[in-house]
């Protein structure tokens, strides 16, 4: 095969195809759960437990006789939905704080930076475990813990963007022209922030899914019988030797979604980098 | 008629050392006043004081018979509307994430309530942007481009177009040609002088390049170590009464 086959342009194009295809699968799966579900995800059928794949149960049944495919698809909606909620909350809290700290400076900025340093001193997972341990297991508490951990990243990123941009001449000129702080924020700073936030969010999306799943796996997040992927992995642990597919399905689902999120993040980063060359 | 009167202006960054020491100048309607001096002599600081970016530590800036320190909101807004600026580095002076037209429209959108334009007419944003680009001899489709797609000279023309867009009385040009190559420098200087003929505003042209100042300006002021040493008509540049430092500058140019 020639070297040209791996030119950056072709890789980029292949990436785009891959994202589109995977996104389509993901969306189709979500749509399917809303439109039509054959089985109840919580419906047990002990007489038909650990069944092999059949037309009735394409991915078989679990240790309580529940349809694995139904649970997997519903888990999809749950996992993706929870991550979205956590992410959105983190962005909505983080961005205004970052803008405020960057633009106001002084004691507001110092106070904020100390808080941020405090959160950053511990790994995300540790804080999330401690918090959901303190507040008690449950998906609501877990989401709260994740938002508490993640908003700092957005605030810090927005703050540093604001700090580098406000020193530049174009902001000075905007101020000379008497533009209000709000207008400068909206017209001149937002375009710098939006791209960065989107890229960071799409990369964080994968991480949050992993965080939710891993904490649910150790029993701190979603509780059974919620068909959350991490919880499903946990439930199928005792059956790993005889029925490994029970763990493989949710595991694969997590891999695929995290992968899509990361590729999407990479793609967005390339896309939002309008400035391809700096300085003449 | 005097556009701006600067009297005994003082500015200090470190206590005990004045970056601008007791400078008095007046800028007349329609003239180009050149301000030359070596790097660090306080000429850019003076410009930043005049633009209200830095607070002054003494003296006054008088515009329309009102010292700026006593100006009310409305008078200060009028000052901002009438004093525009072009900076040295056009890449830094344009927001890299905004299209050219977005940057160009900033002053107009800010002052549109009180504006009465004589030369340009505003019917639509697009048309206005095209008029401005035409005035600075740029192709009118550049409005939809991003700054990084333009050359340094083109970007500087865009910042000039932004400065003239609301037809101010005075434009403070802080080394507008310093970051350009020699050919673009000449072209920008010619553009500035033809725009002045067209719109009739005054320039305060700050530069370390005596040749450029000599080409554009009618009066020349010389600064060193924060002090104004000499101010004279361009014709008197070789006059024997010039300050020793001015003579030194002339000898190297």
From TrEMBL, chain A:
One cellular component term (GO) for this entry is:
plasma membrane
Question: What is the membrane topology here?
Answer: Multi-pass membrane protein
ABC transmembrane type-1 domain location? 76-265
Chief location of this protein within or outside the cell: membrane
- Keyword Cell inner membrane attached: no
Give the family from UniProt.
Belongs to the binding-protein-dependent transport system permease family. OppBC subfamily.
Question: Could you tell me what this protein is called?
Answer: Peptide/nickel transport system permease protein
Q: What organism does the UniProt record list as the source?
A: Terribacillus saccharophilus
From TrEMBL, chain B:
Entry's InterPro entries? AAA+_ATPase, ABC_transp_ATP-bind, ABC_transporter-like_ATP-bd, ABC_transporter-like_CS, P-loop_NTPase
Instruction: Determine if Nucleotide-binding is one of this entry's keywords.
Output: yes
Can you supply a Gene Ontology BP term from the record? Answer: transmembrane transport
Domain named ABC transporter: residues: 4-250
Keyword DNA-binding included in the entry's annotation: no
Q: Which UniProt keywords apply?
A: ATP-binding, Nucleotide-binding, Transport
Highest rank taxon of the organism? Bacteria
One Pfam family cited in the UniProt record for this chain? ABC_tran
Kindly list the GO molecular function terms attached to this UniProt entry: ATP binding; ATP hydrolysis activity
Which family is annotated?
Answer: Belongs to the ABC transporter superfamily.
Q: What is this protein called?
A: Peptide/nickel transport system ATP-binding protein
């Amino acid at each position: 095969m020639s070297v040209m086959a791996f030119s950056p342009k072709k890789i980029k194009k292949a990436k785009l195809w891959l994202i589109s295809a995977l996104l389509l699968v993901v969306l189709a799966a979500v749509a399917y759960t809303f439109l039509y579900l054959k089985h109840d995800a919580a419906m047990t059928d002990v007489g038909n437990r650990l069944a092999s794949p059949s037309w009735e149960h394409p991915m078989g049944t679990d240790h309580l006789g529940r349809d694995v495919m139904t649970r997997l698809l519903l888990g999809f909606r749950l996992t993706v939905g929870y991550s979205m909620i956590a992410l959105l909350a983190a962005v909505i809290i983080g961005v205004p704080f970052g803008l405020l700290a960057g633009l106001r400076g002084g004691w507001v900025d110092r106070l904020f930076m100390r808080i941020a340093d405090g959160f950053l001193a511990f790994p995300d997972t540790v804080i999330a475990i401690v918090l959901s341990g303190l507040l008690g297991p449950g998906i609501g508490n877990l989401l709260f813990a994740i938002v508490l951990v993640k908003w700092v990243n957005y605030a810090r990123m927005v703050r540093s963007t604001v700090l580098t941009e406000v020193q530049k001449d174009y902001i000075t000129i905007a101020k000379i022209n008497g533009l209000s702080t709000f207008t400068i924020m909206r017209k001149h700073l937002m375009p710098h922030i939006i791209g960065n936030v989107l890229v960071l969010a799409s990369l964080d999306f994968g991480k949050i899914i992993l965080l939710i799943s891993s904490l649910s796996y150790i029993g701190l997040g979603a509780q059974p019988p919620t068909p959350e992927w991490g919880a499903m992995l946990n439930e199928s642990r005792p059956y790993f030797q005889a029925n490994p597919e029970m763990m493989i399905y949710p595991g694969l689902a997590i891999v695929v979604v995290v992968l899509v999120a990361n590729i999407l993040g990479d793609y967005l980063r390339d896309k939002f980098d309008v400035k391809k060359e700096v300085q003449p | 008629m005097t556009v701006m009167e600067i009297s005994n202006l003082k500015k200090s960054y470190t206590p005990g050392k004045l970056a601008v020491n007791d400078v008095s100048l007046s800028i007349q309607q329609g003239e180009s006043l050149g301000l030359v001096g070596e790097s660090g002599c306080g000429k850019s600081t003076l410009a930043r004081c005049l633009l209200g970016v830095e607070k002054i530590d003494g003296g006054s800036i008088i515009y329309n018979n009102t010292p700026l320190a006593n100006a009310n909101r409305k008078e200060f807004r009028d000052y901002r509307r009438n004093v525009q600026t072009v900076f040295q580095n056009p890449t830094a002076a344009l927001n890299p994430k905004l299209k050219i037209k977005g940057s160009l429209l900033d002053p107009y959108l800010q002052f549109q309530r009180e504006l009465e334009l004589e030369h340009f007419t505003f019917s639509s944003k697009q048309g206005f942007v095209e008029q401005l680009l035409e005035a600075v001899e740029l192709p009118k489709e550049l409005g939809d481009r991003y700054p990084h797609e333009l050359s340094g000279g083109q970007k500087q023309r865009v910042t000039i177009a932004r400065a003239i867009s609301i037809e101010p009385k005075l434009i403070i040009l802080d080394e507008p040609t310093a970051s350009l190559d020699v050919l673009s420098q000449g072209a920008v200087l010619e553009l500035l002088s033809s725009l002045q003929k067209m719109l009739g505003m005054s320039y305060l042209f700050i530069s370390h390049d005596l040749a450029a100042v000599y080409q554009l300006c009618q009066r020349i002021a010389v600064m060193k170590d924060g002090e104004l040493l000499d101010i004279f008509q361009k014709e008197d540049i070789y006059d024997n009464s010039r300050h020793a430092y001015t003579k030194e500058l002339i000898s190297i140019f």
